Amino acid sequence: MSKQEVQLAELSLLMEALCEERLTAEEQQRLEEIVLSNPDAMQYYLNYAHLHGTLYWDQALGSDAEMAVASPVTDSELPVLKQPHDQVRRRSLSRAGLAATAVLGLVVVVWYVFRGPSTEPQLADNQQTPSELTPEPEETLVTEDGTRRSPRFDSSQHPMLRLHQDGTVTQLTDQPLVAAKPKVLPPVEKLPADASDEAIVTFINHRIQDGWQAANITPSPAATDAEWVRRVYLDVIGRIPTPEEAENFLKSKQPDKHQQLVQKLLENPSYVTNWSTIWTRLLIGRSTSRGINRRALQDFLVQSFDDNRPWNDIVFDLVAAEGDADSNGATNFLLAHLNNQAVPATAITTRLFLGTQIQCTQCHNHPFNEATQSQFWEINSFFKQTKIVRKKRTDKKGEKDQTQLTLVSLRDGGTTFYETRQGLMQPAYPKFAGVKIPEGPNVNRRQELAKLMTSGKTDQLARAMVNRMWAHFFAYGFTRPIDDIGYHNSPTHPELLDELARQFADSNYNIKQLIQWICLSDAYRLSSQFTADNASDDPDDGSTPNFSRMYVKQMTVEQLYDSLLVTTNPAEIVTDYQSAWKKMQKRDQWLQQFVYTHQNEENDETTTFDGTITQALLMMNGPLVQNSLDYNRKDTILASAIKERSPDARIKKLSLAALTRYPTSRELTELKRLVKERTRYLTSRNVPPQIAVQQSYQDVYWAYLNSNEFILIH
């Protein structure tokens, strides 16, 4: 087994001990060392804790009716209630722990089978690996006289090591054996509260450049206008530009055309539909539970993004919403997550809006930070007062009854009780960010929580949104994962995250302004191409992102659908929301073939879209692609391109439509040759010459649409 495999096996045993509350102080210190030193171990820990929590909810928790209710008391009077049937409960928890261990063990085995041997860190300046420098003791060499001895190496072959006669090795210099750690740069001054957009963009550029200097890397060259315009269209409004939009930008000579385009896209109707779609997906997923009004929630978001409402106001409405699912679309967020004692609602509220993952602390204290089990249930108690009421109503035609969900707040929510790992029941009272909420019939707990989250007294809301938006545009945020910010998960650029969060809050949580800052930064203008000087900046291998190039990301299902519509007939792009909603309904029905709902406590889902056989078949002969390849329709891009007089003009138009760029000279030469050969072949098979030409250019367009360049955002 490799060193990493042994380490993860040790981690599995430590996690089992953690979940069973038998972890010693030394073992806890060892657990922290492993997790904080290895990104794979960190991900393993998060997956283990998540699975353990899910099994614990399924097997060890009862309904609200089974929980005792007590009158409010002070902290000094908090009772400690002994759980009845302790042994039965402990056996239930033990079974959950064993099940979690067995499943996670299987995950590790499968992961290593498919992942293959772990890759050791590369050494600086092509140095030898430790295994090459010091062979295993059992390896021996046979000399000419037949004697056996341990193999040695010549220290002169390594510029940094010296081998002594006693077999020990010392370094010749202070230079480490592995790649040098980033330099620690001095802190920078903060911007004033009324800083201009230009000053904020400059601040972003300087802090990113500091990261390059600290990591001793050089950024990639700037992206071409063709790369940038395609990227910003996809990121801001969710589709590729039309040939006319791309050509207008590429031909423009205005020095501020990038800034003008960003501002233009932020006023484009597709901006509203794109971001309302993104946040509807984040809030309730792609698949909708019965009784949840997806249209009403998206209507609420559409109006909010169209009015450019402050982000803290939007969050307040989502957390404090009252009423039925139809008349108040904001209620659908919590209506979708109030199952299982509002545990999912607690977890997703803090994760989406505060950038904090607290789901694992519902059953034990966090081992690496100050988050405790009591804090989870203190936030959960804000939802104790909230109930879902189901009402029967008749539809508009009066033919059948339908169930309407209503979100209401009771006058008295009672006390929340939670079970410790020792089997004891403890009460929890609403408390957030150190502020306790008084009990009383006129106190609406959720409204108080919404006020505390959005008041600006804590920067969690702004930091979480800045981190998520940065990850949207760069594929990676300042933390990994993006919704788990804390000292246990330090950001890559802490000063930049802090300052952007402060400026975002000072701008009255202006989402459009935040997008403009990011899109106009130098980092967003970089090419996605590797260079010899920044090849190490590859977050895909688990390393820290330095944003020295644009990280390639794949289109989402929604982006691909809308972009394929653009490649068919740009005139069909809808501009008003009512028409866009009909298109989105068709899109949602189309993408359901890729969505898989886990049916777990957090209502998680995945898509079987990225890089699968289904996706490949869809792109090769799916109905959307076939519509783009229909040259018999007079209004398609393909039909319009074929009408061009020269082969050069035809291929250039198809390339611009699919890839938002003109073909290179070599590409143009090769494609013209292939079209000529294909046409000759078809006519030899008695295909009429005109149809042969049409089918040849159809093949060119098909190849463009099925290329990696089309489906990737780069």
UniProtKB/TrEMBL annotation:
Q: What is this protein called?
A: DUF1553 domain-containing protein
TM annotation in the entry: 96-114
Task: State whether keyword DNA repair applies.
Answer: no
- Keywords, A to Z? Coiled coil, Membrane, Transmembrane, Transmembrane helix
Originating species: Gimesia chilikensis
Which residue stretches, if any, does this entry annotate as coiled coil? 1-28
Stretches assigned to the DUF1553 domain: 445-674
> Pfam families from the entry?
PSCyt2, PSD1
Mind giving the lineage of the organism this protein is from? Bacteria, Pseudomonadati, Planctomycetota, Planctomycetia, Planctomycetales
Region annotated Disordered sits at 120-158
Per UniProt, residues of the DUF1549 domain are 204-387
